[in-house]
Amino acid sequence: MVLDPRKRQKKLERKTAKRRSQREDFVRQNPTDVHLRFRLAAAAPVLHSLASESLWKEGIGQVLLSREVNHGQLAFAAFLVDMYCLGVKNAMWNIRPRSDVESLAGKLSRNFKIVKLKPECARKLVESAVEYARNLGFGPHEDYQQARLIFGSIDGSACSEEFVFGKNGKPFFIAGPNDDPARCRQIVGTLNSRLGPQGHHFLMPVSGGDPLSDRVEIVRGDWDDDVD
Q1: Buried b (16+ CB within 10 A) or exposed e, 154-185
Q2: Which among 61, 100, 127, 134 has most CB atoms closer than 10 A?
Q3: pLDDT surpasses 50 at 220
Q4: pLDDT tier, 218 (very low <50, low <70, confident <90, very high otherwise)
Q5: In 3D, which of 112, 32, 131 has the Cα closest to residue 64?
Q6: pLDDT over threshold 90, residue 31
Q7: pLDDT per position as a tens digit, 5-30
C-alpha cells in the first residue's frame, strides 16, 4: 500500500520532532556535553556577526558569529581568516557567559576597525576562504569543522556580496609569527607544486643564509594568530 504523501510528511515531521525532543532532553540531563549543546545552539537567534576590516586591507582578519542561548549564555565561533592564501588559519568555539563573548567582541573592536556582516555573508566569506585554500592544497584549522556548526541553517548563497581571494590575481602567502621555517617551506613547496614558482607570491622573514628564493623579503610586523 502506498502511503499518502501528506501522511508520510507528517510522519517524518513527528519523527524529527521526537528526535529533537530526545536530544534536548539529553542536553538537559547532560549539561556538560558542550559539543552537543553547541550543535543545538545553531538554531538560536544570532547576536554578533562581525569581521575585522583588516580582512580587506591586509588579507587577514577575524570573523565572529554568536548566538544567544538560555541562561544568559552565548554560543560563539571565531575564525582567523587568511583571504590571500591559507583560508581558516585558526578557529575557536565555545558556549560562554554573555559577558565573556561581549569582552571578546570588545577586544576585536579595540584592536581593529569592525565591519558588521549579515550572517549569510559571514558564512559565505568563511566557507569561500576554506574552499579557496583547499584548491591550493591547504585544509582549514583542526577546530573548523566543529566551529562551523555555529552557522546552522544560515544560507550563505543568500549573500550577494562577492569576496576576492588572493592578491593581484595570485595566492600570496605571508608568514605569520607561528609559521616556523619548516612550515614556510612546506607551504611554498605546495604552492610551487600546484602553481609553479611564478604562480604565486610569498613574504617571510629571513635571518641571513639559505634564502628560499630571491623573492623572499623581510616582514616588518606580525599578526596575532590568537583570537583569545
Answers
A1: bebeebeeebebbbeeebbbbbbeebeeeebe
A2: 61
A3: no
A4: very low
A5: 112
A6: no
A7: 566 566 566 655 555 554 455 444 44
